[in-house]
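EI: anyone free to look at a 55-residue chain?
SC: sure, send it
EI:
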Amino acid sequence: MPSADESQRLMMAPGTPLLIHTRVGYDAEGRPVRYMVSRMAADRVEVSYDLNTDD
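SC: here you go
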């Protein structure tokens, strides 16, 4: 659940869950070069992935 500050900043209704999506980006040599964290109100987003399974 979101903190009071997160809930206020995202203008979330009481009781709304918070989605936290953490990602790491890598360069061509496989070294991590960025770290990203996104916070989203669960009632306003749809998260979907398209995975390439040909590899």
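EI: The mean pLDDT is 92.
SC: 👍
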